[in-house]
């Protein structure tokens, strides 16, 4: 009998697409049969609440983890930026594949960029991090909330309801909708969420053989180092995925081997104050670099900025 690995997925187009891509990679690289199993999460069902009011980070993740722990599925695929920064008992983060372009993008009417949108234009986003950084640009935009899957979000622009929406480029890339992007926003203007553009492949820690196989076949060392720095920073700031915190690490070759370059921002949601800082060091110290940068940002008052956060 051939071995079958069951891969759990949420039922949105994005989730099914990214889980399907991981499932194909597992089938090909491990030479096994793979089955996709749809799991419904609270975040999928409850479209009327804001993400923050549903409890932020955990909503898209817990149903998949429960299915893993029950043994209903063997592998779960998440957007890494939706994963809480504290590890879950019994769950292993087996692989982090190479990351997509992590930038946020603008999808606006008439092909407009942020700089071209007239003052007073309405831009929709549900993320306090995006709200804060948009406001700090001082473009005179009116910012309104946004929820729902990618299609719903894009529909707000095509219907003329808003002038633009901000989304993660990676999500659009995965469902092959980069055609709608009118500007990829420079990280100097808007730092993405920690982990944005990366996937997390989880399985039961007790499946030691599978953990090792997935790591060997699918894990990307540099992506893992970059997102480790970003997520350790977020954890040390004691901020969740709905906090006005952005972080982006790149790996570049240094004099003594590969180095992590981490940039981060903590903002007041009203856009009046922004703390932008950076740190770098060897890839082997990725977690330490994140913690060190967080500590120095906390010394400069980051906690007060983050705690003053409002819901978008
Ligand atoms: N917040 C929900 C979410 N989680 C992951 C992505 C996009 C894909 C990714 O960043 O990996 C999105 C949508 C968005 O922010 O536009």
Automatic annotation (TrEMBL):
The modification S-(dipyrrolylmethanemethyl)cysteine is found at residue 241. Keywords: Porphyrin biosynthesis, Transferase. Its EC number is 2.5.1.61. The keyword Transferase applies. Residues 226-298 form the Porphobilinogen deaminase C-terminal domain. Residues 5-209 form the Porphobilinogen deaminase N-terminal domain. It is an enzyme of class 2 (transferase). It comes from the Bacteria. Its cofactor is dipyrromethane. InterPro entries: HemC, Porphobilin_deaminase_cofac_BS, Porphobilin_deaminase_N, Porphobilinogen_deaminase_C, Porphobilinogen_deaminase_C_sf. Binds 1 dipyrromethane group covalently. It catalyses: 4 porphobilinogen + H2O = hydroxymethylbilane + 4 NH4(+). Monomer. The porphobilinogen subunits are added to the dipyrromethane group. Belongs to the HMBS family. Tetrapolymerization of the monopyrrole PBG into the hydroxymethylbilane pre-uroporphyrinogen in several discrete steps. This is Porphobilinogen deaminase. It comes from Nocardioides phosphati. The lineage of its organism: Bacteria, Bacillati, Actinomycetota, Actinomycetes, Propionibacteriales.
């Amino acid at each position: 009998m051939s071995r079958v690995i069951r891969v759990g997925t949420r039922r949105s187009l994005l989730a099914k697409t990214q889980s399907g891509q991981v499932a194909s990679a597992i089938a090909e690289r491990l030479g096994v049969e793979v089955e996709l199993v749809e799991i419904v999460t609270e975040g999928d069902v409850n479209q009327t609440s804001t993400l923050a009011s549903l409890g932020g980070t955990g909503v898209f993740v817990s149903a998949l983890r429960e299915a893993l722990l029950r043994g209903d599925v063997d592998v779960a695929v998440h957007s890494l930026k939706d994963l809480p920064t504290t590890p879950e008992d019994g769950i292993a983060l087996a692989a982090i594949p190479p990351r997509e372009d992590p930038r946020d993008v603008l999808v606006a009417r008439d092909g407009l960029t942020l700089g071209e949108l007239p003052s007073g234009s309405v831009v929709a986003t549900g993320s306090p991090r995006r709200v804060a950084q948009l406001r700090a640009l001082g473009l005179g935009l009116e910012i309104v909330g946004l929820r729902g899957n990618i299609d719903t979000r894009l529909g707000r622009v095509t219907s003329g309801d808003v002038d633009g929406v901000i989304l993660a480029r990676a999500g659009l890339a995965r469902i092959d909708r980069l055609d709608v992007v009118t500007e990829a926003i420079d990280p100097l203007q808007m730092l993405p969420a920690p982990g944005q553009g990366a996937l997390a492949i989880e399985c039961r820690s007790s499946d030691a053989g599978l953990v090792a196989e997935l790591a060997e076949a699918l894990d990307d060392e540099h992506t893992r180092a970059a997102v480790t720095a970003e997520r350790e920073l977020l954890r040390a700031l004691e901020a969740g995925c709905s906090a006005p915190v952005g972080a982006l690490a790149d790996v570049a070759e240094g004099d003594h081997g590969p180095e992590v370059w981490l940039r981060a921002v903590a903002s007041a949601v009203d856009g009046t104050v922004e703390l932008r800082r950076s740190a770098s060091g060897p890839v082997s110290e990725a977690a330490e670099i994140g913690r060190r940068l967080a500590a120095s940002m906390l010394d400069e008052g980051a906690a007060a900025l983050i705690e003053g956060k409002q819901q978008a």
